Amino acid sequence: MFVDNINLYASVLDTINNGVIILEEDYRIVFWNKFMAKHSGYSLENVFGKNIFSVFSDLPETWMKLKIRSIKLIKNFSFISWKQRPYLFKFKHNNHSSGIIGSYMNQDCTFIPINDRSTGKFYICIIIQDMTDSASMQIKLIEMQDINKSLEAISSVDALTSIYNRGFIEKKLDKQFNLCIEGKENLCTAIFDIDHFKLVNDTYGHLAGDEVLKNVSSTILAILPKHIHIGRYGGEEFLLIFPNTDKKEAFGLSEEIRLSMENLVTEFKEKKIKITISVGLSYFKRTQKNYLQMIHEADIALYESKKNGRNRLTIFGANHP
């Protein structure tokens, strides 16, 4: 008999650190190892011959019956990870190292169909593996990754304007410059600063100047396509990166920004503050040694814009794209 065979191997199955349950086709329990006895509080003698759903009323009965029927039909095992269904049996987990004392044991479950050739009977074997410690470690790892992402975001953002800070925007430009070296895309960069910003601070105060900087940043963010990057490069100086963008397109976007700043009004303590910006634009050339040379060329073009009356855009080495 199949049950007799089970008894022959019971001592082996009792030594493994997984739960082993064997059910008859009508869901009556015919085997129950020591793991199951330990965590459920029921010995094999207590549960033998009983319907598993009468012993454990909180089991997902409809789901389990469908699962067992499908396994019988396809004649193959089925694996359910704790990520799909956290547990099958509501067993407490008391491992203090897990950090989740009192919660239910996370379980991987394997359903295996068994046909007893001697009797023709169908049985289902369910193996329960305690995954709580592994689940706890994965959850902690995800939490740490989330924390690291948050810290990275904080370290990359300018506290006042909520756009990229100088260090991070330079890293992005360096990365894009290297892609150009590999011949993968075009690249332009622009530097602009707010004309006569010192006068804004002197006239309205530094808090008003801060409001202008925040207004400029949020306005430009709303204008820029998502693949264009902006960072605060200095006090009132900003750096733009145009990945995979040619001179003409970068010129058009930069000019759009300049014109939008002409119409920008920052309200502070019933005062309306208007500003303009001067812009210098440079583009990738294979003669450039590194991204810093691109910034240097954009800075020279910015100087030309200021020298020629401010509130204008200059491309390094030319007056038009």
Question: What does this entry look like structurally?
Answer:
The protein has about 325 residues and is an alpha+beta fold. It folds into two domains: about 1-140, PAS domain (Beta-Lactamase), CATH 3.30.450; about 155-315, Reverse transcriptase/Diguanylate cyclase domain (Alpha-Beta Plaits), CATH 3.30.70. It has eleven helices and twelve strands. It has helices at about 1-15, 35-40, 45, 50-55, 60-75, 130-155, 165-180, 195-205, 205-225, 245-260, 290-305, and strands spanning about 20-25, 30, 80, 105-115, 120-130, 185-195, 230, 235-245, 265-270, 270-275, 275-285, 315. It is elongated. Residues about 95-100 have low confidence and may be disordered.
Largest sheet: 5 strands, antiparallel
Number of helices: 11
- Mean pLDDT value: 87
Strand adjacency order, main sheet? 2-1-5-4-3
Text of the CATH class of the largest domain: Alpha Beta
Gap between N and C termini, in Å?
89 Å
When the domains are counted, the total is: 2
Number of strands: 12
* Order of helical and strand elements: HEEHHHHEEEHHEHHEEHEEEHE
Name given to the CATH architecture of the largest domain? 2-Layer Sandwich
Task: List unreliable stretches of 5+ residues.
Answer: 96-102
Strand content: 15-25%
**Estimated helix fraction:** 40-55%
Q: Give the oligomeric state.
A: single chain
